[in-house]
Design a protein that fits this description.
Chain A is mostly beta strands. Helices cover about 0% and strands about 55% of the residues of chain A. Chain B has strands spanning about 5, 10-15, 20-25, 30-40, 45-50, 55-60, 60-65, 70-75, 85-95, 105, 110-114. Classes of the chains: A mainly beta (about 110), B mainly beta (about 110). Chains A and B meet through strand 5, strand 9 and strand 10 of A and strand 4 and strand 5 of B.
Chain lengths: ~110, ~110
């Protein structure tokens, strides 16, 4: 079984709709992240969480919100989807502390906003 | 302002030859560097990393070289295999207990020709 799972894997929605992307992990890591990938732009950080009570904005948080329901679950919501939010979305986890810089990624969710 | 740059969007190499992927960074606070490999329809997977206290790290066919004075790192794959065909992302961070954000380059698509 995969350590980091994302649902759904693909989603088509319409402009103005609210949608939620979910991420679950079995790695026992405290830190979780949401990234988006656009063609030619690499991965950019949307939000991150160091534990259930800690949520922080990343580089491109406008138009997004998150919820950390438990150590293992971190959800990303688009309150009112717009076409330029069409992208690949990745969740990642990380252990805290020095020497643990590596992040582990889920398989991604491909989102199309019409 | 791109802090991590991968200036070659694509690279083609013959099977069995060496693949060299390059990455430059501008932020002198970065002291830990990672390479990720990404296949289509999958999330990025960690490949190899290097701390700024080293100038070389090797793992099987993969070697990463770091030139701090030039703010440049490179990933060498020897020998290249068709299964190495993927997009490779360079990422950088500031290590330590407070580190959280990986800054990614835009990626280089490697094609290994049989």
């Amino acid at each position: 079984d995969a350590d980091v799972t994302q649902t759904p894997r693909n989603r088509i929605t319409k402009t103005g709709k609210r949608i939620m992307l979910e991420c679950s992990q079995t790695k026992g890591h405290d830190r979780m992240y949401w990234y988006r990938q656009d063609p030619g732009l690499g991965l950019r950080l949307i939000y991150y969480s160091f534990d259930v009570k800690d949520i922080n904005k990343g580089e491109i948080s406008d138009g997004y919100s998150v919820s950390r329901q438990a150590q293992a679950k971190f959800s990303l919501s688009l309150e009112s989807a717009i076409p330029n939010q069409t992208a690949l979305y990745f969740c990642a986890t990380q252990e805290p502390g020095p020497g643990t810089e590596t992040q582990y990624f889920g398989p991604g969710t491909r989102l199309l906003v019409l | 302002d791109q802090q991590v740059k991968q200036n070659s969007p694509s690279l083609s190499v013959q099977e069995g030859r060496i693949s060299i992927l390059n990455c430059d960074y501008t932020n002198s606070m970065f002291d830990y560097f990672l390479w990720y490999k990404k296949y289509p329809a999958e999330g990025p997977t960690f490949l190899i990393s290097i701390s700024s206290i080293k100038d070389k790290n090797e793992d099987g066919r993969f070697t990463v070289f770091l030139n701090k004075s030039a703010k440049h790192l490179s990933l060498h794959i020897v020998p290249s295999q068709p299964g190495d065909s993927a997009v490779y992302f360079c990422a950088a961070t500031t290590s330590g207990a407070g580190s959280y954000q990986l800054t990614f380059g835009k990626g280089t698509k490697l094609s290994v020709i049989p």
